[in-house]
Write a structure and sequence with these properties.
Helix content of chain B: 25-40%
Number of domains of chain B: 1
Strand order of the largest sheet of chain B: 1-2
Strand content of chain A: 5-15%
Helix content of chain A: 40-55%
Oligomer: heterodimer
CATH topology of chain A: TIM Barrel
Largest sheet of chain B: 2 strands, antiparallel
CATH class of chain A: Alpha Beta
Radius of gyration of chain A: 19 Å
Structural class of chain A: alpha/beta
Radius of gyration of chain B: 17 Å
Shape of chain B: globular
Number of helices of chain B: 5
Strand order of the largest sheet of chain A: 1-2-3-4-5-6-7-8
Structural class of chain B: mainly alpha
């Protein structure tokens, strides 16, 4: 690929193709029809990220659908990554939504098993789990590359989205986690986003497992990160979010500063995390999960020196990037 | 049926079960029950007679429920999972543990119990069958619930339930003999 194409390459696919460190963030659709809230978040992120995940009833809480959210995000000028979980749909509905995403031009899908309804606002709901995360990835690849449904019936027109998956390197059994991702890659995953990285020792061991299995050659690894901005958020992440592991040194660091400095310290820790992740061989990008703090994402990315905005600094920045409406916000502290 | 123990919390969501029989012994039993012409004929004979089939399936249910917490999905994954039933996972995951396993190896839905996949991986590795865990397990055929997986296995219907991930040429998910041709 020639150089000009590389610098202009847009979105996640473009970042991967150009070998640029990719940046994704997360947008949670509203509990209601407030489309404006999605647009607002997308506008904050526009130009700063390669793509933004749109969550699918996150934490098993009923929200506006990830497909509708993805379209709103796309309309606001940000490339969406449509999340799709196995929790609420059987294989017919899953395939149907995947085809819908393909028809409407959603460029990326992120396929996961999903949180159990137990954790959400409708714990009495029927957990579906007709497919698991690996099988859903396999299904997507079958739709796209073979042009067939699981039933073997032929499609009229194939989707072209990039297929993503998730993995949690920090959940036991740790030794199996690289192999679990290997299964998803064998099933068709082209990129993976991870749970929050706080524990570098475990993360680096997982990465070396992936390199040994040759996974990083077939699948782009986008490492998860995010700011912890209060001790209450720290406690919540430690105890209430399944699968997040926060080592003692991080807890000590955040508890060790005066109360009014916790937010700054958490953001600084996040910036350092992003920078450190960028140095690990095989890490192709970072996924910023900012828990309702989208306005702070540009600042974190600028300080960490990653993302399309930073990459565009040397060559000509696009008009869109230069006049970023929220430039500088969150930089006050 | 009799899987009433410990159902107090979590209602009817599946609950991880630690098998009451070792993995090695299970693999040995499997060799005794391995498909052959005799069993295939027996299976076909059983299937043709409704009362016999019902009795046979009932016996299978009791045995496997006692030993493995079997839920009678009718397409047994036990040989690929260190003889630990993945259908006792609250999410019924057949391809490995979810990302919500606690730092102590506990199930996220039933924190008082060990994740069934933590148990499965331990048992498979200990018995020297760790490589089975890398197989891609196909989606469950929900028409088979309550049917005899032994008969299905002897009839060769379980072949290809788990597929070896195929290097450069990805394996097809489509099972042409399923879905398009109801039994």
């Amino acid at each position: 690929m020639s150089r000009p194409d590389e610098t202009q390459a847009q979105g996640l696919r473009g970042a991967f193709a150009a070998g640029r460190f990719a940046v994704t963030a997360e947008i949670g659709p509203p509990r209601g029809t407030d489309a404006e809230s999605v647009t607002r978040k997308a506008e904050i992120l526009r130009g700063w990220v390669d793509a933004a995940n749109v969550t699918d009833n996150q934490g098993a809480n009923a929200r506006l659908s990830s497909l509708a959210g993805s379209l709103l995000v796309q309309r606001a000028g940000v490339e969406p990554v449509m999340q799709l979980t196995c929790r609420d749909r059987n294989r017919i509905a899953l395939q149907s939504d995947l085809l819908a995403a393909g028809a409407l031009g959603v460029p990326n899908v992120l396929l996961l098993t999903g949180d159990h309804p137990r954790f959400g606002d409708h714990p009495e709901a029927k957990p579906v789990f007709d497919l698991d995360g690996v099988q859903l990835v396999w299904t997507a690849r079958t739709l796209r590359d073979e042009g067939e449904l699981i039933s073997g019936k032929e499609l009229t027109g194939r989707p072209s989205w990039l297929i993503g998956a998730v993995e949690n390197p920090f959940a036991p059994p740790l030794d199996f986690r690289a192999r679990r991702l290997a299964k998803k890659v064998a099933a068709g995953a082209e990129f993976v986003q991870t749970q929050y990285v706080f524990d570098f020792e475990v993360f680096e061991r997982w990465m070396s497992g992936l390199r040994d299995l040759g996974i990083t050659e077939h699948c782009k690894v986008i490492a998860g990160a995010g700011p912890i901005r209060s001790l209450r958020a720290l406690e919540f992440m430690r105890t209430a979010v399944p699968g997040v592991h926060i080592p003692d040194e991080v807890v000590r660091r955040l508890r060790g500063v005066p109360g009014d400095r916790v937010a700054d310290e958490g953001i600084e820790l996040c910036v350092e995390t992003v920078q450190r992740l960028a140095t690990i061989p095989g890490v192709a990008g970072v996924h910023l999960m900012a828990l309702g703090y989208e306005r702070g994402v540009p600042d974190i990315l600028r300080r960490a020196g990653v993302g399309p905005q930073e990459a565009a600094k040397a060559p000509k920045p696009s008009v869109r990037n230069r006049h970023h409406p929220m430039e500088g916000i969150g930089h006050a502290r | 049926m009799g899987s009433s123990e410990g159902k107090s919390e979590g209602g009817e969501w599946p609950r991880p079960v630690v098998p009451r029989i070792g993995a090695r012994l299970s693999y040995a039993l499997h060799r005794v029950l391995a498909a052959n012409a005799l069993y295939r004929r027996l299976g076909a004979w059983v299937e043709r007679r409704r009362p016999v089939y019902r009795w046979f399936t009932g016996a299978e249910r009791v045995i496997k429920e006692q030993l493995y917490g079997c839920r009678m999905c009718g397409q047994c994954a036990l040989p690929d999972t260190g003889y630990t039933c993945p259908m006792t996972c609250p999410k019924q995951l057949r391809n490995g543990p979810c990302g919500g396993v606690g730092a102590d190896g506990r199930c996220e839905v039933h924190p008082e119990l060990v994740c069934v996949w933590v148990t499965a991986i331990e048992r498979a590795e200990e018995a020297g069958h760790g490589a089975d865990l890398d197989l891609l397990q196909r989606p469950v055929d929900h028409r088979e619930w309550g049917r005899s997986s032994w008969v299905n296995y002897w009839q060769g219907r379980d072949e290809g339930l788990g597929v070896a991930p195929g290097g450069d040429s990805p394996r097809s998910l489509v099972r042409r003999e399923l879905g398009l041709s109801p039994r």
